[in-house]
Amino acid sequence: MALMTCRELSLGYDGDVLVRDLNFEVNAGDYLCIVGENGAGKSTLMRTLLGLQPPLSGSITFGEGLRRQDLGWLPQQTPVQRDFPAAVGEIVLSGCQAREGFHPFYSRADKARAQDAMARMDISALSNRCYRELSGGQQQRVLLARALCAADRLLLLDEPVAGLDPMATQELYHLISELNRGGMTILMISHDMNAALRYASHILHVGGASFFGTKDDYLKAGGARRYLRRRGGERV
């Protein structure tokens, strides 16, 4: 059974439909990139999968024992969030709250999980640093470590490299790819088509004529080729 199955999913706000009758599934080990024009409903889809807003219609089903609270989430940052005056270790540890809900004290297991997540992101040395003093790439590693504190099997990433310089971008893509090769399933919104087609196993195109399938099938689709030419991904 798939980790997540979406059937006839329609998304939007106050009856205003952004996406209609979306069908796709996510299996363990997939690397699914969600692409589409600005305003097509990609972030709305992420928020709906996370339970932050209800779908207008259709269903989202979790399988293989996966629960919604087991999802790791890396959202886009606002300028205010980038200036958050907290220690790195505190921010990473707060990701453990997503697993079982708020509790006033962190357990020994929570602290060990946070230490492991920081080690995987190579930020252990930053544990006592103030978050707002870090570079953009370092901040994204912190937020990815925080997401790992919630997730064992599935990470949802909304434009994780937005605003990063080329070196930090490649480093973060490499870390995400390593997580995927280690067994973590990835759902990532991306406008970087070259990277999407380099790393993804599957593509979900949202908006207009929606598409879901393997990367190879996406490259063969006529609508996909037109979109790729506009986004600069035809060289991949």
Structure class: alpha/beta
Number of strands: 9
| Mean pLDDT over the full residue set | 89
Please report the distance between the alpha carbons of the first and last residues.
32 Å
What amount of the residues lies in strands? 15-25%
> How many structural domains does the protein architecture include?
3
Give me the CATH architecture of the largest domain, please: 3-Layer(aba) Sandwich
Unreliable segments of 5+ consecutive residues: none
CATH-level-4 superfamily name of the largest domain: P-loop containing nucleotide triphosphate hydrolases
Count of helical stretches = 10
How can the largest sheet be summarized? 6 strands, mixed
Order of helices and strands: EEEHEEHHHHHEHEHEEHH
Give the secondary structure arrangement, pairings included.
Layout lengths: L3 E10 L2 E11 L4 E5 L6 H8 L7 E6 L8 E4 L4 H4 L5 H7 L2 H4 L7 H13 L15 H15 L3 E5 L7 H16 L3 E5 L3 H7 L2 E4 L5 E4 H6 L1 H10 L5
Parallel strand pairs: 3-7, 3-8, 5-6, 6-7
Antiparallel strand pairs: 1-2, 1-4, 8-9
Structural summary, described in words:
This protein is of the alpha/beta class and 236 residues long. The protein has 10 helices and 9 strands. The chain has 3 domains: 1-25 and 55-66, no CATH class; 67-155 and 169-186, Rossmann fold (3-Layer(aba) Sandwich), CATH 3.40.50; 190-198 and 208-236, no CATH class. It has helices at residues 42-49, 79-82, 88-94, 97-100, 108-120, 136-150, 166-181, 193-199, 215-220, 222-231; strands at 4-13, 16-26, 31-35, 57-62, 71-74, 154-158, 185-189, 202-205, 211-214. The strands form 2 sheets. A 6-stranded mixed β-sheet has the order 5-6-7-3-8-9, sandwiched between helices. A 3-stranded antiparallel β-sheet has the order 2-1-4, with helices on one face. The longest helix is centred in the last third of the chain and has 16 residues, at 166-181. The two termini are 32 Å apart.
